[in-house]
Amino acid sequence: MYIDVTSYLNSTMPEADTEASSSLDQDDFLQILVAQLEQQDPTEPTDNAQMVDQMTSYAQLEQLTNISTAMDTLIAGMASLGATQAAGYIGMGVEAGGYTVAKKGESISPMTYTLGSDAESVSAYIYDENGDIVDTVILGSGQAGSHEFQWDGLDYNGKEVPDGTYSVGFSAEAENGDAVSVSTSVTGTVKAVFTQDGTIYLKLDDGRTVNLDNVTSIAKGNQTDEDDQADA
């Protein structure tokens, strides 16, 4: 005798549990298989081929579950290993893709913006931690390549803004009005390493954070490898 899986589950499981899960785990599958054997008609036992198919399905389910568990363990292990290796960056200077500047008193961290092509006009927009724009800086024209940006820490009215981390966005236009691509990067000395949702972040000495995957160069102290090569 063959037992319909859906009917059996609906008759043996509480309604709340049925609604909470739409898939079968190993225990559910085994429970159904045992119940089928217990309730089969002695005069019409379960077909051997059908039983083999069900046992094969159970074995495949168990294998997939074990693979999933192993993958979760592997991913967690890799994240832990990555964080351990990243700890070697502490005390080193890094350059990474990023768009924030930190203000502490009169000290404001610089950042770099890179133009994909020559631009007739370039502007920088400063946002506070709430996402509100506090200042716009007109930078004028710029050639393709990298340029340093140093904000003065003042808002629209020329008033000094509170200490904290600010985001900077750039817009650039070519002479014909077409948009010019702009990428940004930040530099700083790594103070700490932490993970969040499986992603490894580096905390810089000025409080900013950068994704480890976005790091483009590292060096001892505050200078990057590219700077060292330029001095050589």
TrEMBL record:
Residues 103-173 form the FlgD/Vpr Ig-like domain. InterPro entries: FlgD (IPR005648), FlgD/Vpr_Ig-like (IPR025965), FLgD_Tudor (IPR025963). Pfam families: FlgD (PF03963), FlgD_ig (PF13860), FLgD_tudor (PF13861). Signal peptide: none annotated. Residues 83-216 form the FlgD Tudor-like domain. One of its GO terms (biological process) is bacterial-type flagellum organization. Keywords: Bacterial flagellum biogenesis, Cell projection, Cilium, Flagellum. Required for flagellar hook formation. May act as a scaffolding protein. Belongs to the FlgD family. This is Basal-body rod modification protein FlgD. It comes from Desulfocurvibacter africanus PCS.
